[in-house]
């Protein structure tokens, strides 16, 4: 008869397989719904008198122009993108309705709209709101028909943006406030076409779906002038999502109380078992990856500081015309991508290091593959970043932008050629890790299931990046958003999370602190819990991206469950801390484990608390694209994945150079500086600024919370300057960690003496 642990493991594997099958089936079904119900792209926008305002080609070419100058790195559309410049769809909507009201006021009352009394203004609101919400798209002709009066309002708003994206002195102050360089779109026809895209994006936010009373974007953004207020479904599903979260936390707490701690703890081995791992040539070749990690990390911080400074001076850096050479769209693109790249590089290197370490097998040509992948990573970084600079500076041309320039989609905005190259690199990584892990998976010992789960997460990480190749240059923006969050959410928050759990479990098993069978069961159970909310939780990003109510219902219900495993993260951290103090030689792994503890803390705060703060439909309706989402993004991305990347790097470095003297002061100071700096930038700037934007949105609308008028207030300037202490402390922490890594190569030669003897005299190693 099979042991009980084997039966449990088999059931968990079957449960995980069924969960993933159902989850991805639902995701693809919702994807089909998005394809069918996305806001229509008209063949032309035409007035009642027959004047063509915009054509389909104008709107699509205008989107390409917007993407070529940075796209979502210069303001946002439907709430997705950068935070300094406006949300163009929200601002266009407000300017259009105000211009329309003014035209109607002058026609009916002979005076500007602002000069009317409240009752007269209310009369105009009552007249115009049904007109602007009426869906006049004709599926037979593909035309959107508008009144001649509305066409006049559109013309006025278009003239404003034609000026903003030129070098017109009349709008120079706005370009500075938006951190746009002078003459960002030199070609006048390109500017005209871009206004067509802005109009269409705004039209979708306020035009009711056929047979419905809410817009294609579920009434986002908030705009009281046109009745863009939260829908009944947003209220209802926000309430249910909170109930789902409470129920999920209760069930998981019950499971933890009933089943946790039933197994007697292991007696740790007398000496470090990891010292028995033979470092192979390919494992040693991963060392250069960690130099690259620190280099990319430091450059990312530099780009982050530059990007933040643009919020103060707009186009300059202490009087130097920086925007002429390194525009905001470039620094922010590089800052966000470098965050992904250095974290991913640390994780890729960990997989390459652990493959042979787990199996004890060095495949043929493994070192060559590791070195080739390293060179490819450098080429991808240099090539894609150069292409983005040429695109934003308008030196590449629209014909080449999609393939080699700037796609304009936040986090996945490198040119398609470089995306394909990166996908091939991930396939190589998958092959290298898989062939090294294969013997461990075939052994059927206590770590074979962990090795199998590690391999499956590697497969998922490699293959799921293909979602970034699922759109073309002219693919509908709703569909691009759908596939983009397969990368931003599912790729990072889903399967990298599984990879991390499997890696950390293997480390604890290898150190003799956890039984292999227990770790396998725990890893599989944790994976099921993460995937239950993590996969379908992706839909909370899509509430207002031109999708139907079903996405709100499903996203709100399931994304709430993402918080469930984080609710007990403190107990997991306590167990980790106890394990780290189990035996004197564990002092050697103090700092990797400290970074794992930091992951637990920021998982709870950044991903859990700040994540749930914004992910219900009602909350996100008012908070999307504000600094509250930035607070969640910074604390979750670096606090969880960045800290984990550094922790994994330190574990690998300990194995690569087991006898090296670690400079404890450097790493201790770096650790606390990173955590304190991240806390300060969140508490002193991002959260209070986000709260002020939330208040502004509630009172006057989303356009105002993102406007130059609001963002140039003295209190906002003060909060921006308050980033300096946190950013400085954080940068010092990164520099100290980099200095520590450098010291492992440039420091004293290792002293060959027994571990126990060294621990007596140098307990900080």
Brief description of this entry?
The protein is mainly alpha-helical and 765 residues long. The chain has 29 helices and 6 strands.
How would you portray this structure in words?
This protein has 765 residues and is an all-alpha fold. Among the domains are: 44-217, no CATH class; 660-747. It has 29 helices and 6 strands. A hairpin with a 4-residue loop joins strand 5 (137-138) and strand 6 (143-146). It is globular and about 90 Å long.
Instruction: Count the beta strands.
Output: 6
Rg computed from alpha carbons, rounded to a whole number of angstroms: 27 Å
In terms of per-residue confidence, which ranges show pLDDT below 50 for 5 or more consecutive residues? 751-765
* DSSP summary: helix tally: 29
N-to-C span: 47 Å
- How much strand? under 5%
Summed over residues and divided by their number, the pLDDT gives a mean of 87
Shape: globular
Helix content range: 55-70%
Strand line-up across the major sheet: 2-1-6-5
Largest sheet: 4 strands, mixed
In quaternary terms, these chains amount to single chain
Structural class: mainly alpha
């Amino acid at each position: 008869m099979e042991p009980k642990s084997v039966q449990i493991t088999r059931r968990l594997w079957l449960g995980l397989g069924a969960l993933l099958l159902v989850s991805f089936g639902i995701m693809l079904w919702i994807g089909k719904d998005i394809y069918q119900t996305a806001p229509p792209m008209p063949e032309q926008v035409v007035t009642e008198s027959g004047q063509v305002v915009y054509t389909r080609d104008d709107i699509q070419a205008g989107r390409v122009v917007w993407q070529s100058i940075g796209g979502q790195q210069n303001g946002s559309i439907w709430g997705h993108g950068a935070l300094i410049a406006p949300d163009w769809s929200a601002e266009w909507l407000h300017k259009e309705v105000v211009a329309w009201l003014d035209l109607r006021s002058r026609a009916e009352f002979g005076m500007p709209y602002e000069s009317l009394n409240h009752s007269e203004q209310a009369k105009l609101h009552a007249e115009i709101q049904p007109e602007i919400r009426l869906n006049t798209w004709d599926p037979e002709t593909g035309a959107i028909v508008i009144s001649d009066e509305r066409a006049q309002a559109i013309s006025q708003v278009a003239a404003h943006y034609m000026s903003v994206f030129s070098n017109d002195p009349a709008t120079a102050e706005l370009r500075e406030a938006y951190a746009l360089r002078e003459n960002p779109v030199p070609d006048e026809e390109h500017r005209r076409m871009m206004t067509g895209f802005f109009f269409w994006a705004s039209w979708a936010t306020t035009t009711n779906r056929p047979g419905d009373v809410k817009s294609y974007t579920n009434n986002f953004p908030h705009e009281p002038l046109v009745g863009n207020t939260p829908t009944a479904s947003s209220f209802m599903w926000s309430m249910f999502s909170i109930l789902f979260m409470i129920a999920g936390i209760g069930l998981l707490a019950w499971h933890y109380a009933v089943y946790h701690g039933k197994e007697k703890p292991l007696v740790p081995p007398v000496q470090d078992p990891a010292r028995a791992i033979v470092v192979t040539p390919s494992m040693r070749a991963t060392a250069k990856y960690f130099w690259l990690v620190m280099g990319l990390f430091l450059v990312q911080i530099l780009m982050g500081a530059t990007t933040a400074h643009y919020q103060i001076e707009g186009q300059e850096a202490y009087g130097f015309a920086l925007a002429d050479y390194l525009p905001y769209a470039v620094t922010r693109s590089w800052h966000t991508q470098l965050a992904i790249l250095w974290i991913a590089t640390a994780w890729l290197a960990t997989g390459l290091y652990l493959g042979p370490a787990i199996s004890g097998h060095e495949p043929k040509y493994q070192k060559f593959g590791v070195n080739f992948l390293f060179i490819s990573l450098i080429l991808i970084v240099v090539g894609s970043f150069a292409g983005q600079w040429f695109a934003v500076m308008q030196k590449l041309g629209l014909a080449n932008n999609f393939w080699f320039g700037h796609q304009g989609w936040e986090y996945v905005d490198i040119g398609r050629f470089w995306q394909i190259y990166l996908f091939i690199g991930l396939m190589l990584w998958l092959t290298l890790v898989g062939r090294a892990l294969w013997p461990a998976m075939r052994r059927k010992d206590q770590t074979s299931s962990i090795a199998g789960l590690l391999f499956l997460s590697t497969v998922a990480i490699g293959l799921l990046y293909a979602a970034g190749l699922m759109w073309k240059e002219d693919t509908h923006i709703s569909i691009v958003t759908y596939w983009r969050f397969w990368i931003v959410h599912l790729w990072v928050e889903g399967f990298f999370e599984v990879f991390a759990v499997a890696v950390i479990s293997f480390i604890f098993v290898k150190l003799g602190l956890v039984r292999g069978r227990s770790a396998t069961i725990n890893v599989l159970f944790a994976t099921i819990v993460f995937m239950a909310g993590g996969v379908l939780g992706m839909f909370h990003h899509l509430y207002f991206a031109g999708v139907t109510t079903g996405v709100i219902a499903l996203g709100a219900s399931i994304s709430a469950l993402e918080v469930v495993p984080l609710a007990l993260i403190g107990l997991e951290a306590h167990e980790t801390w106890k394990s780290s103090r189990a035996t004197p030689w564990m002092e050697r792994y103090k700092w990797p484990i400290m970074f794992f503890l930091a992951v637990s803390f920021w998982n709870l705060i950044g991903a859990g608390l700040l994540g749930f703060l914004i992910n219900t439909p009602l909350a996100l309706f008012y908070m999307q694209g504000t600094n509250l989402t930035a607070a969640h993004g910074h604390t979750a991305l670096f606090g969880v994945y960045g800290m984990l990347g550094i922790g994994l790097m330190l574990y690998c470095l300990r194995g690569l150079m087991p006898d090296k003297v670690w400079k404890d002061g450097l790493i201790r100071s770096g650790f606390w500086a990173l955590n304190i700096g991240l806390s300060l930038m969140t508490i002193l700037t991002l959260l209070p600024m986000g709260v002020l934007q939330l208040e502004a949105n509630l009172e006057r609308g989303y356009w105002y919370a993102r406007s130059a008028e609001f963002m140039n207030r003295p209190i906002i300037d003060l909060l921006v300057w308050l980033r300096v202490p946190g950013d400085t402390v954080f940068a010092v922490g990164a520099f100290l960690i980099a200095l520590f890594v450098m010291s492992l190569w440039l420091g004293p030669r290792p002293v060959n003496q027994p571990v126990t003897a060294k621990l007596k005299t140098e307990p900080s190693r």
